[in-house]
Amino acid sequence: MNICFYLQSMGSQDDSSLQSIRYLRGSLQLLDQRKLPLDTTYLEIRDAAEGWEAIREMVVRGAPAIAIAAALSLAVEVSKLEGFSGTPNEAASFLAKKLEYLVSSRPTAVNLSDAATKLTEIVMNSAATATDANQVFQAYIEAAEIMLEDDVASNKAIGSYGSSFIQNQRKDFKKLSVLTHCNTGSLATAGYGTALGVIRALYADGVLESAYCTETRPFNQGSRLTAFELVHDKIPATLIADSAAAALMKAGRVHAVIVGADRVAANGDTANKIGTYSLALCAKHHGVLFYVAAPLTSVDLSLSSGDEIVIEERSAMELLNTHGGLGEQVAASGIAVWNPAFDVTPACLINGIITEKGVITKNGNEVFDIKGFVGKTMSK
């Protein structure tokens, strides 16, 4: 990966600072989120290998953004591919293998594997009717670009549905305070965000009193990224330590918790950033509503429960050193480290799952019928 340009420091933020993905056909630049909020640096991604590295090394993160960055990194590679002399079927096979490789960069986020599956199907269908390989490559590029466009529209729909639903659930309050975890905004998606998109919509509707964001250790996505977005949008917000969430809820200062998701099982169990499960337990104890906001691409109906979700473990350096492993050592040498990137929140702790097609709520048996909800949306 090459650093292509340096934009500005935190003191001169503008709208471009909230673009995690900059794409024009043949060119992809990813905001290096490891350096936020103080430095805004974009890295040029020239092929799938550099896309894989950027995803694995957390240059780009957030399930929707990971999927789009992966798809577009291959689109850039294909757009500059010269001398490919294979058949349409060989072109489709080439793309399928590259997509399979990209999925291995971060296995927990289902959006990435879902995108790869859909794109593979598109290129295979294209190969069946194409007369040359370039037609297959063109079909892939166009499909990847559509994913980028669709993500923003999907996020805005999530925000709208979420804001309306939460307001209806908490009619006893004219103003609402909401807690969120990790980063689920413009920096984690193609734009606007999922859980943070709901917070943006609540603010736009004039009903948000305050947003609270956890620091989200050990990579500090909350303090570095979510706080950055909230300050940029001038949304009233307060940063808290991860360990302060229970005390905040006990004090009655939170009316709802809204988090994102990297994978939602068929029963509603949800994998999200480590610490989400703890927040859900605290919310349940204090009678605080707990919502997951995620596109339907985060739903994995092939998994019956969260027990089947593969949880990625990150480098020990993220705990041993400052700056998410990039800074100086702060922990004792020789100490063992357990550093899962995600945990699974049981469906019984979740009040609703906010999607771009509406809010999935529990039936009379207090269980989610996610398969039925997805089936209904697909038939419309």
With strands numbered from the N-terminus, the spatial order across the biggest sheet is 7-6-5-8-11-14-15
pLDDT under 50 segments (min length 5)? 1-17
* Series of H and E elements: EEEEHHHHHEHEHEHEEEHEEHEEEH
**Rg, nearest Å:** 21 Å
Q: Span from first to last CA?
A: 43 Å
Largest sheet: 7 strands, mixed
Number of DSSP strand runs: 15
Strand content: 15-25%
The whole-number mean of residue pLDDT values reads 92
* Proportion in helices: 40-55%
Q: Tell me the number of helical segments per DSSP (H or I, 4 or more residues long).
A: 11
Query: What characteristic shape results from the CA principal axes?
Result: globular
Q: Structural class per helix/strand content?
A: alpha/beta
Please provide a written account of the structure:
- The chain is α/β, with parallel strands linked by helices.
- The chain is 40% helix and 18% strand.
- It has helices at residues 48-56, 63-79, 88-103, 110-129, 133-169, 195-204, 221-232, 245-250, 276-286, 317-320, 370-379, and strands at residues 2-9, 21-24, 27-31, 39-45, 176-180, 208-214, 237-240, 256-259, 263-265, 270-273, 289-293, 299-300, 342-345, 352-355, 358-360.
- The chain has a seven-stranded mixed β-sheet with strand order 7-6-5-8-11-14-15, with helices on both faces. A four-stranded antiparallel β-sheet has the order 1-4-3-2, covered by helices on one side.
- Helix 2 packs antiparallel against helix 5 (133-169), helix 3 packs parallel to helix 5 (133-169) and helix 4 (110-129) packs antiparallel against helix 5.
- The radius of gyration is 21 Å and the shape is globular.
